[in-house]
User: What shape does this take?
Amino acid sequence: MSTAIWILLVIVALFGGLIGGVFIARKQIEKEIGEHPRLTPDAIREMMSQMGQKPSEAKIQQTYRNIIKQSKAAAAKSKK
Assistant: This one.
């Protein structure tokens, strides 16, 4: 084979690996965020306290459940 064909094959393999890696990394990050959301009930409690509210535990749990429900709905919508 000539050198030009080898160079072309290396470039095609490089781009193929790059594109494949991006899609695999994106899938892994979406899975990780879905399993372990970044916003926890403690963070919600802290945010409400900083806004001057005195939140009850029921309100914190309700807000947390709503956030989780919205994130799952957004994930399901993006899969379609």
